[in-house]
Every structure is written in C-alpha cells, then in structure tokens.
Amino acid sequence: MKYLYVGGLGPETDGEALARIRESTAAMFRTPVREIELPPVEFAYDAVRRQYRSVAVLEMLARTCPADARKLVGVTGSDLFVPVLTFVFGQAQLDGPVAVVSLARLRQEFYGLPEDREVFLERAVKEALHETGHTFGLVHCADTDCAMSLATNVRHIDRKRAGFCPGCEGLARRRSGEQVL
Fold first, then answer.
1. d(CA 121, CA 114)
2. Which of 95, 96, 135, 171 sits 20 to 30 Å CA-CA off 65?
C-alpha cells in the first residue's frame, strides 16, 4: 500500500495545523495518510534574505521520501523563498513526489494583526491542498474560489475555499486514483 506522508519540518511545526492538513489531504485525495518526522530546515537558511530556500527543502524531501510514499508533504513554520520571488507560501514538484508548505505568512501576527487561530488553520489547509494538488499534476486554476488558484498574498488565500472546483476535483480524483494502492 502507498501512503501520503505529511510531516513537520522540525519539532516547532504547529501540531494542530499538521493534524488538519493530514485530515483534509486524506479526504480530498482519498489516500491513507501517515505522519512522518522530518528534519528541521536550518540547512536551507539564507542569511542575506533571512529566509529559507524552498528548492533546497524540496531536494531534501525527495531524498527523504519513504519507499511506500505516493507523496510527501513537509510543513514548516519557516519563511520560504525562491530567488525570483520575495516569498512563497509553498512549492511542489509538479506531478512529482514532494511538496513543502510554509506556515510563516499564514499567521495574522506576521502582518501585525491579532492572532486568529481559525483563519490560520483554514489558510494552512488551503495551501496544503494547493501544493499537494500540484504533486498530482494539477496546475493553477482560473477559478479564484478553487484551492488550485494562484495566491500571491493572504487575501487571495482567504477568498479560496478549502476544496477544488469541479474540474480540479475531478482531475485530482482521477490522478490520485491512477496510483496503485
């Protein structure tokens, strides 16, 4: 049997967010989910940017991916970037085995606002569905309500729902069903 693994990248990763992400990805992709312990992302730190290189994290996840994994999603509290962008909420290998989600900019406190736990957890789920969708070959969707729509700021994430439009959901079901269990 193959599993979708979801794990925190280091012990400081929010446990409640991880639990919600596991639950939502299991339901959406109809795949059994397992927890996995993953190393912290300190190796990917860029002192000039004071952020973490998401490509380096993806490469580490690819090396760490268990043999019985359909997909592996790493979740971190660290702020991620790629060189051409100020930041990324996450990154995935399109139709590949691994993805990473950053919780850093999903928190209201990052923007100087009071904590709102439920908003944070909803954003975490939406971003995890988005990045996991990419691992199953889904691309960005023009429907701004769909979790697969592109989000360049948290307002875009907040407009999404924690699910896919009918087209993306059908494709996700077909793509996740293509795998042999």
1. 15
2. 171
Please answer whether residues 128 and 72 qualify as being in contact, where contact means their C-beta atoms are separated by less than 8 angstroms.
no
Cβ neighbours for 96, distance < 8 A, ≥ 6 positions apart: 62, 135
Number of domains in the chain: 1
Q: What is the largest CA-CA distance in the chain?
A: 46
Active site residues: 131
Q: Which domain holds residue 87?
A: 3-178
Query: Can you name the residues that pair with 71 across neighbouring β-strands?
Result: 4
| pLDDT value of residue 10 | 87
Distance of CA 143 to the CA centre of its chain: 19
148: domain CATH number?
3.40.390.10
Residues in the chain: 181
Residue 80: burial class (beta carbons within 10 Å; 0-12, 13-18, 19+) = buried
